[in-house]
Structure formats: C-alpha cells, structure tokens
C-alpha cells in the first residue's frame, strides 16, 4: 500500500470510529444536507478543512470530494471520491465530514451542564487534594482547556479519568481551544502532534474536540454554532502566557508596558515568515520569531473574567511568578496591591504585598493556603467582556486556593508544567484553584 493510500485508510478508520462515538452529532447532521442548506454546508466544510490539523493529502482530498463547494445538490458531488475518502455513499459521507470537522450546529446539540453550585464545589475543594477529581463526583464530567497547546494536559487528563468514567457509563467531555494556526511554522513544540490528536478523537467514552486557530477571548463563532458548552464543570488554563497576562492594562499604561517589553524582551516588529504574519523580536544578537499576537497584552482581569464565565471550578496551573503576582493583585481587596503604573519587580514585591509576600514565599512545594487566610479577597471584580443577560457588572470568587509548584502527585499536568523543574532561572510556579460565586 502506497503512503497516500495508507493515510486515506487511516482517515476512513478514524471517521468510522468517531461516528460510533457521536450519535447526537450524527443525527443532527441530517439537517445540514437538506437541499436549502447544502451549498452553505459545503462552504463551511471546506473552510473548516483548511483550519483543521490534517495531512495535506487529506485536506486536498476533502476539497476535491466536495467539488470545490461548487455543487448545489448531493448528486453533483463525485461519489467515488467521497467513497474513497470516507467509505460511505455521498449523503452519509458529507454528514460524516460534518461530524468530523465539527460543523454540526448548536440548536440540535445541547451540551449537558452541571447542577453543582459553588457551595458544594467549595466543600469538595476543601476536602480533596486533587481538584480535577471533581470530574468523578460531578453529575457532568466536562472540562474546557484554554490555551491547550500541545494537548499534553488533555492527554494526561484523559488517561486518568476517561476509563473510570467509562466504567460508570459516563462520558468525559473535553473541549480544547488554542490560538495557534494548525500547520503554522510558528509555535514549534506547542503544536499538538497529529498522532496525539487522532488518539484523543478516537478514544472510547470521550467527547473530544480541539479548536485550533481560535483566540480564547473570541469564542463567539464556536458558541453560535454550538461547538462549546455555555459553561463547564471545570475550566483550566495551564501556563498562562507571558507577557499576555503579565501586565494588567487597567493598572499600567500602554507606554509603560511597551517600554518594559522593549527593556526585557528587546525591540520587536511585525513581519512575514514563509508568507505568514509573525512577530520578530531582537533578543541580543538573535532575531526570534513568534506568532504575530505574542505580545498582545490581555491582562489578568480578562483571564479571570473568561474563566469565571466558563467554569464552575477554575484552575490555573504552572503560573509563573510574573503572571502570578499580577493575578494576585487583582484578587486582593485592598487597592494598595494595584499601584498605578508600577511594574512589579523582585525588588518591590515585598514592599507592595508585605506580609502576604512573606507568607506565600515560605510555602513549600505542594503546600496549599487559602487566600482568605492571608488577606481579604476582592468582593467586586470588574467584568471585562460584554455582560450577558442578567449578569452583574462585577463578580467575586467564593474561594481561592494557592498551591506552590507546577506538578503534583496523582494530578494531570501540561508539558510546560513538567519542564519547570529543568528551568534553572525560574522560581517554582503556582497553581490557583478558584470557585466563582
């Protein structure tokens, strides 16, 4: 069997496996091949195929099999090509691609939502060392992985929880979002390996979707098409990016942030690399290339608002020191922890945070403390994003736990978290477990 035939055979097998796991999506896909919706469905399929992390030969085969979106009815499509691609006759083949590429629309697909309230989750968090174990106790085992990167955390999570849940005849719902463009030459090891991606997609007892090339702060399209649940039992974000979340725009002016970036990172400019937009940073005598949005500053308030909206339990793992103290300043009640236009440094952190800095600095690896035991937490955190119907302009976290370290026994973690111990210039990271009120 030649290489292309092997790739096609593997794709057909994966499609078959996926359809066995996606009864609801398969049924909902019927509407997408109705005559009035068929042309739009073809265009959406080709758009999603361009975004998906697929072998070039499969992507090209999909475009050819869908007639370059020029067909107006099923009968216009090349049936033999669809059969070769999916192993199915034309109508079922198009429906199968709708499921595979995630274009099944929302009204026909309702993700279950947990009925757990913040008081019950707070009780659980206080009595369990591993917050992810909530997936085993909750009525709905769902998790949103924001900034999923190489899917290393997703893989560890599935290895730990999918089988026990499956034995109880329960499904693990895992949705992962990352801004990196699949196939981009930028981002290096942060791209998920195709083998890992396909393994997650075909895992029994797992409802998994990965949405690459999506900014976590711009999920409107995914929401409108029903690809994401309104809220998950757990929302997780591992190694929140520096400098994205290392500076709070409501506390620091844009000029100060830009000057600090130039001082610590080097001069930077937008450019092109192999035809795609990129950020070039002159770091010493080296020119480094990153995705074009690498230095877009969102700040902790945006991250906290997003997490609180999306998760009943919010977990920030492997948070580096710079991001941690900036986040902490927004979680504490006293305004003195948010000095205007003052960059946090190793020298001024003890002065700004006082006794809190001393207490947290003494935490041993693996040790946990409740923020409320250190100082009053902020009762009115301002929302950053447009208010939803009935939503207040401010919110609060019922509970905030702080744990020192990046990796903990019996707990899934990302590859970045596992690399922290090898980063000799980095201090141990932090984990934050937050429960929105």
How would you describe the overall organization of this protein?
This protein has 16 helices and 13 strands. The mean pLDDT is 92. The radius of gyration is 23 Å and the shape is globular. The strands form 3 sheets. An 8-stranded mixed beta sheet has the order 3-2-1-4-8-13-12-9. A 3-stranded antiparallel beta sheet has the order 5-6-7. The chain has 2 domains: 106 residues, no CATH class; 268 residues, Rossmann fold (3-Layer(aba) Sandwich). It has 437 residues and is α/β, with parallel strands linked by helices. Helix 1 crosses helix 6, helix 4 runs antiparallel to helix 5 and helix 5 packs across helix 6.
Task: Summarize this entry quickly.
With 437 residues, the protein is α/β, with parallel strands linked by helices. 37% of the residues lie in helices and 17% in strands.
Which terms summarize this structure?
437 residues; alpha/beta; Rossmann fold; 2 domains; eight-stranded mixed beta sheet; three-stranded antiparallel beta sheet; 37% helix; 17% strand
| Class by alpha and beta content | alpha/beta
Query: Could you give a short account of the major beta sheet?
Result: 8 strands, mixed
- What is the H-and-E element order? HHHHHHHHEHEHEHEHEEEHEHHEEEEHE
- Share of residues in strands: 15-25%
Structure summary, number of beta strands: 13
- Total individual domains: 2
Q: Strand order across the biggest sheet?
A: 3-2-1-4-8-13-12-9
Radius of gyration: 23 Å
Cα(first) to Cα(last) distance is 58 Å
- What is the residue-mean pLDDT, rounded to a whole number? 92
CATH topology grouping of the largest domain: Rossmann fold
In CATH terms, what is the architecture of the largest domain? Answer: 3-Layer(aba) Sandwich
CATH class of the largest domain: Alpha Beta
Range of helix content: 25-40%
Globally, the shape reads globular
Alpha plus pi helix count: 16
Quaternary status: single chain
Uncertain spans? none
């Amino acid at each position: 069997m030649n290489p292309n035939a092997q790739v096609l055979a593997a794709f057909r097998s994966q499609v078959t496996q996926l359809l066995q796991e996606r009864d609801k999506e398969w049924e909902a896909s019927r509407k997408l091949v109705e005559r009035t919706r068929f042309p739009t469905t073809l265009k959406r399929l080709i758009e999603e195929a361009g975004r998906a992390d697929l072998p070039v030969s499969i992507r090209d085969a999909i475009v050819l099999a869908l007639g370059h979106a020029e067909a107006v009815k099923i009968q216009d499509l090349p049936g033999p090509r669809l059969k070769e691609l999916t192993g199915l006759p034309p109508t079922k083949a198009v429906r199968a691609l709708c499921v595979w590429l995630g274009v099944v629309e929302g009204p026909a697909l309702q993700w279950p939502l947990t009925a757990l309230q913040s008081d019950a989750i707070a009780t659980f968090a206080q009595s369990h060392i591993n917050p992810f174990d909530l997936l085993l106790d909750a009525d709905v085992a769902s998790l949103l992985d924001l900034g999923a990167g190489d899917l290393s955390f997703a893989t560890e999570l599935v290895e730990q929880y999918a089988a026990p849940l499956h034995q109880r005849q329960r499904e693990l719902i895992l949705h992962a979002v990352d801004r990196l463009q699949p196939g981009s030459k930028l981002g290096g090891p942060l791209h998920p390996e195709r083998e890992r991606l396909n393994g997650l997609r075909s895992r029994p007892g797992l409802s998994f979707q990965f949405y690459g090339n999506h900014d976590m702060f711009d999920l409107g399209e995914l929401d409108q098409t029903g690809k994401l649940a309104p809220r998950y039992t757990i929302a997780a974000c591992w190694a929140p990016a520096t400098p994205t979340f290392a500076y709070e725009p409501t506390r620091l002016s844009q000029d100060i942030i830009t000057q600090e970036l130039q001082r610590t990172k080097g001069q930077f400019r937008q450019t092109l690399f192999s035809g795609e937009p990129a950020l070039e940073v002159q770091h010493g005598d080296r020119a480094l290339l990153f995705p074009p949005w690498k230095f877009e500053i969102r700040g902790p308030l945006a991250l906290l608002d997003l997490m609180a909206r999306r998760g009943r339990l919010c977990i920030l793992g492997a948070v580096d020191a710079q991001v941690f103290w900036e986040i902490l300043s927004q979680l504490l009640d006293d305004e003195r922890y948010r000095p205007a236009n003052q960059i946090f440094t190793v020298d001024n952190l003890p002065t700004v945070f006082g006794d809190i800095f001393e207490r947290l600095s003494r935490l041993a690896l693996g040790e946990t403390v409740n923020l409320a035991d250190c100082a009053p937490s902020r009762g009115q955190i301002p929302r950053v994003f447009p208010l939803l119907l009935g939503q207040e302009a401010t919110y609060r976290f019922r509970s905030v736990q702080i744990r020192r370290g990046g990796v903990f026994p019996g707990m899934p973690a990302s590859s970045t978290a596992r690399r922290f111990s090898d980063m000799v210039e980095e201090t141990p990271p932090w984990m934050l477990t937050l429960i929105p009120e």
